[in-house]
Design goal:
This protein has 2 domains: 174 residues, Aspartate Aminotransferase, domain 1 (Alpha-Beta Complex); 250 residues, Aspartate Aminotransferase, domain 2, CATH 3.40.640.10. It is 40% helix and 12% strand. The strands form 5 sheets. Strands 2-8-7-6-5 form a 5-stranded mixed sheet, with helices on both faces. Strands 9-12-11 form a 3-stranded antiparallel sheet. Helix 1 crosses helix 14 and helix 4 packs across helix 10. The protein binds ligand F0G. Ligand F0G binds next to helix 4 and helix 5.
């Protein structure tokens, strides 16, 4: 007998209480936070889906690894365990630890980009885009057209547009120092990239002599989607699939706070000896010696173990299914989400759900506030507050107005998800009363983290 219920493949050894608040308390908290969920105190949040980054629960083996951590400044055994774990998956020659993903991005881009360069990517994540633009280079998003249509079903909506890639490379000789592919495509709905697409991008890049890098934060989730959706991979292990993905690239940046199953850490890995040397020099300047890169020895151990656990089939099956479980409930209730559900998150299409709010009044931001006010749920806007601000200071509406509900790894159970669904269905019944927002105070870059807002028409709810 094969039972159909997919269970959490773990039992719980340590618990952390979460706190109920009243709607009145949340109203005060929101006002004090300048209507910015990043500015809330976390203890005022009941279910925190702000991010899946660094918010996961570690396993008993990872905690055991923490105790083994070797804190030697140089050449610690923990570094070699970490290096071996990364190389087992990526096969890449140089492994450079960093304190998180964006540090790897800054070091890579700082070592390779010059003014006026172009970096094509299926879709840059916000910090990736900011780190490219900080080097006065252009961050060019070229997902396949299906990737920008939330309701359209496509098994690999994260794919990079190969025709556009070829165009950019042929029209800008010498100005594209690298091409990136983000797996899964976070800003585009947590959508996977197919093996065929990575392979084809690799062939195009090779033809133009340009290196291909993966932004590999969620490589294991991407591997799982390839296993269940791409022909020829059903009988391959997630590890073997990941190894094949990395065999087509010259390097990667990685935030171990996602598929490293760790609370902090990241790395840059690459094959080019000379570029690796330049990156290591930059690392020493700001992150630390190349065998710890701003991390403690115990962090390196936690990542080394996490990278082994994350490719387990029972884990990945549970992980992808728990996100899809919420997606199924929302689809049934006609709540518009990016289809199919992503690997680490559900993305609500706020433009479709709240057509009465113009993009200039940030419908996705308003919806995320409503979810907090009604049910204590913290999500994140991926829309025009996050992406509307242009490098020259002008404002342009984002391609999509999404609210992302990101699932921390191994943290919430099915009843938490049932509660979430209940809140979402409730908010759906009062959606016509939600009003738009206006920015009152904003920093020059990455404004979504610290901007202050207010209801554009007096209050969040009419
Ligand atoms: N690339 C992608 C695709 C990401 O999703 C992130 C982080 C980074 C790079 C940067 O990594 O945070 O370790 O510096 N994403 C988190 C999120 C913050 O909420 O999606 P980091």
């Amino acid at each position: 007998m094969e039972f159909k219920t997919i269970i959490e493949p773990f039992r719980i050894k340590t618990v952390e209480p979460i706190r109920q608040t009243t709607r009145e308390q949340r109203e005060v908290a929101l006002r004090e936070a300048g209507y910015n969920l990043f500015q809330l105190q976390a203890e005022d949040v009941l279910i925190d889906l702000l991010t899946d980054s660094g918010t996961g629960a570690m396993s008993s083996e990872q905690w055991a690894g923490m105790m083994r951590g070797d804190e030697s400044y140089a050449g610690a055994t923990s570094f070699y365990a970490f290096e071996a774990a990364v190389q087992r998956i990526t096969g890449l020659k140089h492994v450079i630890p960093t304190h998180q993903g964006r540090a790897a991005e800054r070091i890579l881009f700082g070592s390779i980009l010059r003014d006026g360069d172009i970096v094509p990517n299926n879709t840059h994540f916000d910090t990736t885009r900011a780190n490219v633009e900080y080097r006065n280079a252009k961050a060019l998003d070229i997902p396949i057209p299906e990737g920008r249509q939330p309701h359209l079903f496509h098994p690999f909506k994260g794919n990079i547009d190969l025709l556009q890639l070829e165009d950019v490379l042929s029209q800008n000789p010498g100005r594209v120092p690298l091409v990136m592919i983000t797996i899964t495509n976070n800003s585009g709905g947590g959508q996977p990239v197919s093996m065929a697409n990575i392979r084809a991008a690799y062939e195009i890049c090779r033809q133009f002599g340009v290196p291909l890098f993966l932004d590999a934060c969620r490589f294991a989730e991407n591997a799982w989607f390839i296993k269940i959706r791409e022909k020829g991979y059903a009988n391959k292990s997630p590890l073997a699939i990941a190894q094949e993905m990395f065999s087509y690239v010259d390097g990667c940046t990685m935030s171990a706070k996602k598929d490293g199953l760790a609370n902090i850490g990241g790395f840059l890995a690459l094959n080019d000896d000379e570029l690796a040397q330049r990156c290591k020099n930059a690392l020493i300047l700001t992150e630390g010696f190349p065998t710890y890169g701003g991390l403690a020895g115990y962090d390196l151990e936690a990542i080394a173990v996490g990278l082994q656990e994350v490719v387990r089939e029972d884990y990945l099956q549970y992980r992808i299914r728990s996100v899809a479980y919420l997606g199924d409930i929302l689809i049934k209730a006609d709540i518009p989400i990016v289809q199919p559900p992503g690997g680490h998150a559900i993305y609500i299409d706020a433009k479709a759900m709240l057509p009465h709010i113009p993009q200039s009044e940030y419908p996705a931001w308003a919806l995320s506030l409503a979810l907090f006010l009604e049910g204590g749920i913290r999500s994140v806007e991926i829309g025009s507050v996050m992406f509307g601000q242009q490098p020259d200071g002008s404002e342009e509406p984002a391609a999509m107005e999404l609210v992302r509900l990101a699932f921390p790894r191994r943290v919430y159970t099915q009843s938490h998800v049932d509660y979430l669904a209940e809140v979402l269905l409730h908010v759906n019944t009062i959606k016509n009363r939600i009003q738009g927002m206006r920015i009152t105070d904003s920093p020059p870059v990455l404004r979504h983290f610290t901007a202050r807002l207010e209801p554009a028409h007096g209050s969040l709810f009419m």
